[in-house]
Design goal:
By secondary structure, the chain is α+β, with helices and mostly antiparallel strands. The chain has three domains: 1-69, no CATH class; 70-119, no CATH class; 127-223, no CATH class. It has helices at 8-20, 24-37, 54-66, 84-101, 112-118, 136-141, 146-153, 161-165, 195-199, and strands at 72-76, 104-108, 121-126, 129-135, 205-206, 212-213. A four-stranded antiparallel β-sheet has the order 3-4-6-5. The protein has a two-stranded parallel sheet with strand order 1-2. Helix 1 crosses helix 2 (24-37) and helix 2 crosses helix 3. The longest helix has 18 residues, at 84-101. The chain is elongated, with a radius of gyration of 21 Å. The mean pLDDT is 89.
Length: 223
Amino acid sequence: ALNPVRTVADQLMEPILRHDKVTPKVALQRARDLLDSVGVPARRVRDYPHEFSGGQRQRIMIAMALACRPDLIIADEPTTALDVMVQAQILKLLSELISEHGIGVIMISHDLSVLAHLCDELAIMYGGRIVELGASREVISAPRHPYTRALAGAFPTIGDPASRRNPAGLAGDPPSISALGTGCSFAPRCPSVMEACRTAEVELRPAGAGREAACLLEGEVDA
């Protein structure tokens, strides 16, 4: 998060000065260039975080992540608390930066629509374990693990009012990571659970071309 009592310039310049060993003048110019690259006017480099909108602050955070020219960025919920229009702008910006700079991104999100928009590959996690892997659009459109199916079903379908009035749900509560037992972590909530699911840890297994799923029913679960 941005430090509310330090200017944007100070926060953008800090990693540049620490890691690239340049002069303050060079670091300040880099900070201005970074703001320009994410669509924030460079003239505002001396402003404080509270003087920016939520979307602008998110853009500044992206600029900070780019400050030392990384090969990989980890983006944890980059569109949280932003309205739909600003979310779309941030996703477009990330997509452009990835293409322009050749940066790899690991994105962490609960929003499948965000992941489908930006990511090539998707890893679905439940109870601290990966339960499905594959190309993002295929995982969302034809899930192979029961949890992924439930997750995808929880999102309303555009043009289907009934899906908004009665979104799909999932009985039970998420597990405590500190109290996971043997067997599949999703077994207590799975509508297709078998006794074998409760007694042995289920590893990822092939689930089609370029796909993997941690499910004993793989091959039997309807897509």
